[in-house]
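Team,

Forwarding the record for the chain on the shared tracking sheet. I've put the sequence and predicted structure together so nobody has to dig through attachments.
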Amino acid sequence: MTQTSGLSLCAQLYLSNTTFNSTPLVQDAKWFISHAWKYKFTSVIGALYNFCAKEQLDPETTIIWFDLFSNSQHGTAAKPFEWWETVFMNAVKSIGNVVMVLQPWDDPIPLKRVWCIFELYASTVTNSSFMSPCPQMKKLNF
């Protein structure tokens, strides 16, 4: 769907003015999700549903910045670290809310991944709120 344009899915949908029930499919995110790519996609979505339930958010209207859809997945290896660092830092800063999937709760994978630690760092230096959908975790303030 995006191979010809090389755009992210969000950029492609935004430029096409795609809507659902007259609502744009691409909107400003209220949450940045940090997760390990090792997780199954369905596990991440399940964690987000748990997060929405815990925070009393409507999962149908809560807008989440998800890297898989928000960043182009074309030519990723050619982009320097500084590009990624800037994109993710700016996204965290502009959104102001980070939710990190921490599974399993007693030994969470993201806390062993440098990139996820960077996203945690980004939430700290940008004064963003940081939360986890894990039922055993409370709201974290750094």
